Amino acid sequence: MARHLVAVGRALDAEDFDLALEHAQEAGRRAGRVAGVRETLGVVHYRRGEWAKALAEFRTARRLSGLNHLLPLMADAERGLGRPERALELAASPEAKRLAPAEQIEMAIVVSGARGDLGQTAAAVQHLRDLARAGSPKAPWAARLRYAYAAALEADGQEVEAQEWYARAAELDEAGETDVREVLGLETEPEVVDLVDEEDDLQDTEGPRDAGDGEPGR
User: Fold this and answer.
1) pTM higher than the cut 0.85
2) What's the burial of 196, exposed, middle or buried (CB within 10 Å: 0-12/13-18/19+)?
3) φ, ψ dihedrals at 205, nearest 5°
4) Residue 206 and which of 21, 93, 137, 191 are 20 to 30 A apart at CA?
5) pLDDT of residue 213
6) Domain spanning 68-208: which CATH class is it, in words?
7) Beta carbons of 61 and 38 less than 8 angstroms apart
8) CA 153 from chain center: how many Å?
9) Which among 64, 72, 136 has a CA at the least distance from the CA of 104?
10) Mean pLDDT over residues 49-65, rounded?
11) Where are the domains of the chain?
12) Fold agreement between 1-67 and 68-208
């Protein structure tokens, strides 16, 4: 079982979600009553966007373990199923109030998203404003929090401030947890040059070229 769980982690890192699912299901067949195994299977379904399956596995894992750390993922799965009101209900539960700091941040991000789903864009911004502004840039969730706050600002029509917070997120997101660099246009597709046609054109107009005429790095 353990080797399958390790393989799941590696496959998720490589974004090979089909392989991750194969290993997670095999672990489930071997140890379906182990909370960690069901949680892992839920995470794989979550990463695949299979919200109903993810939610079912998270519920089972929570029941087996008696722990509540999966509540943010469960709430986000509810959003994925088009049930933002249910996500807000989970966030308001007594169990959610007792989550660890990292999980509290994740839940706040989910709540902001749920408010946005409901068209409550100002409330989405408000829910993250103090957390984003007062949060330490060294916190492991800082990039994700700044990105979520920027997205809420953008949805609320606050374009200038949104761009500022996207830039702040990009400063911290060295691991590529978000697509902020793409949002800011910091990662562009390399220019594709047809070297054969280009060389033929130059020969027709300039005559033979020396080897040293080529552009460095081509």
Assistant:
1) no
2) exposed
3) -100, -25
4) 191
5) 42
6) mainly alpha
7) yes
8) 18
9) 72
10) 98
11) 1-67, 68-208
12) yes
